[in-house]
Amino acid sequence: MVKTLTIKAHSRPETLKKTLQSIVLDKGCKGWTFCVAIDWSNDQELVEKVVHEVLSNKVSYYVLKGRVNLGYARNHIKALKFVFEEKEADWNLDFDDDYHVYLGWSNLCSYYTDILMAERLDIFSGHLQSQFSKRRCGGFKDVDSLVRVEPTFGNHGTLLRGTDWRGVYGRWITDRVLGGNIDYESLTFEWMREHGLNGARPLVSRIEYQPNNGVNFTEELCRNVNSFMLYTNKRIPKSKFRVVDVGTADGVGRTAVK
After folding, report:
1. What are the pLDDT digits (tens) for 38-91?
2. Distance separating alpha carbons of residues 187 and 71, to the nearest angstrom
3. Angle between the 13-24 and 44-55 helix axes, to the nearest 10 degrees?
4. Inter-CA distances, 238 with 145, 148, 156, 232, Å
5. Is 50 exceeded by the pLDDT of residue 156?
6. Three-state SS sequence of 81-121
7. For the segment 196-207, what is each residue's pLDDT rounded down to a tens digit?
8. How is residue 168 annotated by DSSP?
9. In this model, does residue 252 exceed pLDDT 60?
């Protein structure tokens, strides 16, 4: 099984450094080949230096860079085409350059790849970020091990299958982004709705929401979101995860722990 991990980077070397450092703290990172796609900026060489500084002698990795600024969406497509088409990855976990990851992310991904998404082809994406509030998690026991399935998608620590990319989806999303639609996230959610697909998210987050405090969102918004979410560093064995609130793309679901 070929597992890759892509990170889209643009400027912000110190922010990227913190993200990479958080990812490699998990020993499970050694089972993944990293690909950092560095979009053009005046800081490109500094960004590349950070990549080598953090990843050298820790994991296998590639650096993609160019002399033209592609923008977020096209840089994203460049990274995914590289890992899925050139490297023929079976799975890819995708990151932005400004998210701190908590220990245990690799075990959650193993649950997705080996159990949940292997058994259920209706699940298009597996996520590290929760997006569920403390209040919504309060009614369940052992929330660290619970995963919810519902129509959902986001770019924050997102796992995709290589077979989905090399099928129709990869061509579909590439054509639209290269054609000028730069909203990768909304496009993918549109694809999922049209095909009746779901995403899986843990109730307790393994990735911090926008820790860079205000580069993409206001500092107040970042603080507020972080304050209502639950986080964990627990390394739950992949066999111990359970599904809660199983949803379907047509909005019909059942509340149960399996």
Report:
1. 999 999 999 999 999 999 999 999 999 988 999 999 999 999 999 999 999 999
2. 16
3. 20
4. 9, 15, 21, 15
5. yes
6. HHHHHHCCCCEEEEEECCCCECCCHHHHHHHHHHHHHHHCC
7. 999 999 999 999
8. I
9. no
Cβ atoms within 10 Å, residue 109:
25
Q: For 226-249, write each residue's pLDDT tens digit.
A: 888 999 999 999 999 999 876 544
What are the structure tokens assigned to 88, written together? 């023929």
Q: What is the DSSP letter of 238?
A: G
Assign 15 a pLDDT band (cuts: 50, 70, 90).
very high
pLDDT tens digits along 103-122: 999 999 999 999 999 999 99
Contact 29, 7 (CB under 8 A): no
Cβ-count burial 78-94 (b if 16+ within 10 Å, e if not): bbbebbbeebebebbbb
Q: Which residue would you say has higher pLDDT here, 6 or 210?
A: 6
- β 146-150/242-246 pair status: parallel
Q: What six digits make up the tokens of 190?
A: 């549109």
Length of the chain: 258
User: Distance (Å, rounded) from C-alpha 190 to C-alpha 183?
Assistant: 11
| CA dist., res. 157 & res. 202, Å (int) | 12
Tokens of 58: 């820790």
Q: What is the spatial distance between Cα 101 and Cα 116, in angstroms, rounded to a whole number?
A: 21
The whole-angstrom separation of Cα 20 and Cα 74 is 22
Q: Which residues of 178-212 are buried (b: 16+ CB within 10 A; e: fewer)?
A: eeeeeebeebbbbbbeeeebbbbbbbbbbbbbbeb
Q: What is the residue type of 118?
A: A
From the list 226, 232, 241, the residue with the least C-alpha distance to 149 is: 241
